Amino acid sequence: SLRKCGAWVVGSCRFVADPWRPFARADRIRVIYNGVAGPDSPRPAGAPGRPPTVACIGRIGPEKGQREFVAAAAIIRRAIPGCRFVVYGAALFGEAGAQRYDAEVRAAAAPLGVEFAGWVNDVYAALGSVDLLLVPSAGHEATTRVILEAHAAGVPVIAFSSGGIPEVIEEGRDGWLAGSTEEMAGRAIELLTGDPSRLAEVSRAARLTWCRKFTLNRYHEELLNAMELASLPG
Q1: pLDDT (tens digit per residue) in 98-137
Q2: Residue 108 main-chain phi, psi, to 5 deg
Q3: DSSP 172-218
Q4: How far apart are CA 1 and CA 46, in angstroms?
Q5: Is the pTM of this model over 0.85?
């Protein structure tokens, strides 16, 4: 049907768009990465005078990886006893599986003193108190929006190398990719106990990445251009 009607396909990343390539004309497939409206100014990473804060932000569910976050927190806590851990988000109402998963996450997190902040209306207010964001998303995730928001806020990210996530992180420049919980925790320990200038350097690079690639204006322009092309005859 897509081929016969000459349909256009827009994917939020190559990971999303590529499965459609056998079914649509190559010149009618566009990859348009999401854009986010960032804060007026980024928060410098590694603020002195307080323990580091490591967070996970998103709907609580298996695909978002809060259990893996808690497992990483346990490893980090052994190396950095004063580290603070926060989970932002909650399970969706009416999803029995998500509610069970939420209970499992909280039970595993209780001995570690992990804080559960619930939903927040302003993600940048939450990111304003975060030194490092962990994104342990499952393999079918696309380019999770919170990574782009962290870029905009200048918060360094360590994410699983899954789905479309490698498309929005430049390894070692504006964030890091990890293949396992242990690798994620090890990288976090290295960063949080190392030279603070490294976190600050990555914070600046992340903000620049957002300015270059993931602003809301850029997203709107590319989407409107794609819609205009799709409206042309032929």
Answers
A1: 888 999 999 999 999 999 999 999 999 999 999 999 999 9
A2: -70, -30
A3: TTTBEEESSHHHHHHHHHHHHHS-HHHHHHHHHHHHHHHHHH-BHHH
A4: 53
A5: yes
Above 60 in pLDDT, residue 47?
Answer: no
Residue 143 one-letter amino acid: T
Q: Which helix (H) or strand (E) holds 9?
A: strand 9-11
**E strands of 15-58, at which residues?**
29-31, 53-57
Nearest partner of 191 among 181, 179, 200, judged by Cα: 200
Query: Coil, helix or strand for 163?
Result: coil
Whether 175 shows a pLDDT value over 60: the answer reads yes
29-31/132-135 β-pairing: unpaired
Measure the CA–CA gap between 17 and 129, rounded to whole angstroms. Answer: 35
Inter-axis angle of helices 96-109 and 66-79, nearest 10: 10
